[in-house]
């Protein structure tokens, strides 16, 4: 018993000592980072073991700290050199803060470290040569800081390196030859010499890092440096603004290789803890690949910015082609409008029925349907409503969309569904047919400010000629116009349950099932109008009877 007791005492004492110095080191880090009282409040210096602290992981055998993850928490202080005592630490993630000062040389003592992520901070000074001691290091991510000097030769011999990200700093000098053998690297946005020939590009083509780390790259997406996009857009010049909406401004840009891009600079995205959720949503929309969906080619994140990079659509948007043409530019002809209607429907069908999880656009309109070089419809901005609202836990907190295009149930309850998109699509069809905006206050006196009400009235009166865009100069097929209007009215029914799915819309546009569905709608509309007329007569009779009763009473004897 005595021997067992002694062994247990030794283990307990070992654990106590280990936890004590590790806790001191972590508490020193909390202090140096200038953490607010509300941040890491459970990091209590009087508590022996840090293994129960938030954002800290320990191994279960030796009770040693193996992981510290403090991403996007708004820290503004410095890195504590005392971290260097954590010999078992394998993961240190401090990206997305505002950390200043240099990288302590003591970090080179973290002999078990496999992943060091310090990107998106304000670190200065040189990369310490002591990092060359980290023989197990696989991921060294120092992007988007203010580090200067040359790349230390000592890190050349790191045998395990999978990803080396040093982009968007102030580094200079020659990139060591051996670093181009690293599987994933990025040296762009510095003053570095990457080599004299094309065999040494400053950025690798691989995204296959062997680790589920969305902060590096995923899918076929490219992570752009902030400075790259600054240069491409002439520092986000107002002269390069292609458009502006509820999600932010879109800028035309040209990359160093003369590739034309469109850069969407999102608003309302930067918040503590929001970047990880943002990247999850970016990954979701990046896997939605369809010929009628705008392809996301890359992104850029900083502590205060979220940007998405798309290919430039040379024919701009459907809204531009309908209403904003410059003199001499061709009008969208009727066959192209038909092609746009079908292509848009197919893109939305894919989002609703072939993506997992399904993606709801929430702002379908002519301005968000772009046109490629062949005037093929390309739906843009899908998924952005959720991207912008990633920090909100309740999806009903904010209605995203454009007045005149928003379904009534979404406007009244804040709850969106696939049928919300169907409504917006119906309004877009009316834009295609009429060339008009969803809301036009010039019709205020006619009480038909909404395009939907205006079209319904003209459809009842069988005045199709008055509905069709005059810019078509009567070069349209009356039967096809009528068909498109019928589909639009089916899509914009007040009750979401009555609207068709986008798959059904595609079939109707292809000539299948529209006649039956339209006859049902007409029957419902006739019944509804009769009921409204009956209620109106009751109301009018009630008013008349009251007036008559008043007259009788007034004419009576006094």
Structural summary, described in words:
The chain is of the alpha/beta class and 558 residues long. The chain has three domains: 2-213, Alpha-Beta Horseshoe (Leucine-rich repeat, LRR (right-handed beta-alpha superhelix)), CATH 3.80.10; 218-312, Phosphorylase Kinase, domain 1, CATH 3.30.200; 318-537, Orthogonal Bundle (Transferase(Phosphotransferase), domain 1). It is built from 13 helices and 18 strands. The chain has helices at 2-32, 226-232, 274-286, 318-323, 334-353, 384-388, 408-413, 418-434, 451-460, 464-467, 478-491, 502-509, 514-555, and strands spanning 56-58, 65-69, 91-93, 115-117, 139-141, 148-149, 163-165, 170-174, 184-186, 191-193, 222-223, 241-245, 248-254, 260-266, 298-301, 306-311, 369-371, 377-379. A seven-stranded mixed beta sheet has the order 1-2-3-4-5-7-9, with no helix packed on it. Strands 11-15-16-14-13-12 form a six-stranded mixed beta sheet, sandwiched between helices. β1 and β2 form a beta hairpin. α5 runs antiparallel to α8, α5 (334-353) packs antiparallel against α12 (502-509) and α8 runs antiparallel to α11.
Please estimate the helix content: 25-40%
The first-level CATH class of the largest domain is given as Mainly Alpha
> What is the CATH superfamily of the largest domain?
Transferase(Phosphotransferase) domain 1
Radius of gyration over C-alpha positions, nearest whole angstrom? 31 Å
Strand content: 5-15%
Low-confidence stretches: 1-18, 208-219, 389-397, 541-558
How many structural domains does the protein architecture include? Answer: 3
Quote the distance from N terminus to C terminus: 116 Å
Largest sheet: 7 strands, mixed
CATH architectural label of the largest domain: Orthogonal Bundle
**What is the overall number of helices?**
13
Strand element count: 18
As laid out across the biggest beta sheet, the strand order is 1-2-3-4-5-7-9
So what's the overall shape?
elongated
Topology-level CATH name of the largest domain? Transferase(Phosphotransferase), domain 1
Q: What number is the mean pLDDT?
A: 81
Decide which structural class fits the backbone: alpha/beta
């Amino acid at each position: 018993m005595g021997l067992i007791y002694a062994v247990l005492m030794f283990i307990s004492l070992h654990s106590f000592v280990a936890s004590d110095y590790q806790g001191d080191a972590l508490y020193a880090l909390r202090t140096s980072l200038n953490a607010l009282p509300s941040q890491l409040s459970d990091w209590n210096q009087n508590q022996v073991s840090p293994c129960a602290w938030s954002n800290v992981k320990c191994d279960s055998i030796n009770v040693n700290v193996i992981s510290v993850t403090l991403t996007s928490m708004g820290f503004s202080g410095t890195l504590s050199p005392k971290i260097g005592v954590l010999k078992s630490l394998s993961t240190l993630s401090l990206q997305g803060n505002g950390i200043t000062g240099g990288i302590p040389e003591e970090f080179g003592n973290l002999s078990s470290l496999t992943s060091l992520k310090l990107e998106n901070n304000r670190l200065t000074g040189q990369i310490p040569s002591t990092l060359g001691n980290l023989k197990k290091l696989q991921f060294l991510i120092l992007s988007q800081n203010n580090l200067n000097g040359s790349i230390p030769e000592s890190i050349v011999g790191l045998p395990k390196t999978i990803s080396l990200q040093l982009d968007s700093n102030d580094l200079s000098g020659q990139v060591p030859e051996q670093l181009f053998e690293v599987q994933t690297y990025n040296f762009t946005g510095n003053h570095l010499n990457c080599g004299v020939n094309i065999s040494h590009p400053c950025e690798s083509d691989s995204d296959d890092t062997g680790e589920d780390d969305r902060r590096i790259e995923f899918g076929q997406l490219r992570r752009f440096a902030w400075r790259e996009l600054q240069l491409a857009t002439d520092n986000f010049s107002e002269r390069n603004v292609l458009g502006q909406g509820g999600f932010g401004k879109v800028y035309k840009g040209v990359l160093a290789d003369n590739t034309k891009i469109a850069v969407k600079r999102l608003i309302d995205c930067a918040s503590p803890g929001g970047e990880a959720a943002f990247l999850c949503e970016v990954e979701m929309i990046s896997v939605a690949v369809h010929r009628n969906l705008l392809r996301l080619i890359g992104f850029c994140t900083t502590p205060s910015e979220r940007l998405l990079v798309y290919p430039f659509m040379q024919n701009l948007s459907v809204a531009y082609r309908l209403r904003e043409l410059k003199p001499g530019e061709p009008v969208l002809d009727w066959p192209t409008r038909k092609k746009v209607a079908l292509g848009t429907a197919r893109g939305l069908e894919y989002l609703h029925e072939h993506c997992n999880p399904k993606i709801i656009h929430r702002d379908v309109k002519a301005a968000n349907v772009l046109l490629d070089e062949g005037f093929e419809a390309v739906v843009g901005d899908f998924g952005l409503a959720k991207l912008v609202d990633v920090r909100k836990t309740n999806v009903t907190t904010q209605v995203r969309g454009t007045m005149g295009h928003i379904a009534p149930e979404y406007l009244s309850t804040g709850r969106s569904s696939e049928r919300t998109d169907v409504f917006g699509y119906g309004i877009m069809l009316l834009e295609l047919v009429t060339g008009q905006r969803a809301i036009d206050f010039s019709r205020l006196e006619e009480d038909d400010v909404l395009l939907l009400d205006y079209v319904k009235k003209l459809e009842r009166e069988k005045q199709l000629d008055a509905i069709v865009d005059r810019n078509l100069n009567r070069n349209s097929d009356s039967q096809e116009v009528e068909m498109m209007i019928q589909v639009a009215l089916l899509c914009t029914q007040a009750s979401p349950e009555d609207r068709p799915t986008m798959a059904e819309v595609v079939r109707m546009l292809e000539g299948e099932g529209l006649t039956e569905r339209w006859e049902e709608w007409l029957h419902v509309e006739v019944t509804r109008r009769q009921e409204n007329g009956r209620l109106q007569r009751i109301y009018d009779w009630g008013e008349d009877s009251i007036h008559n009763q008043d007259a009788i009473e007034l004419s009576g004897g006094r």
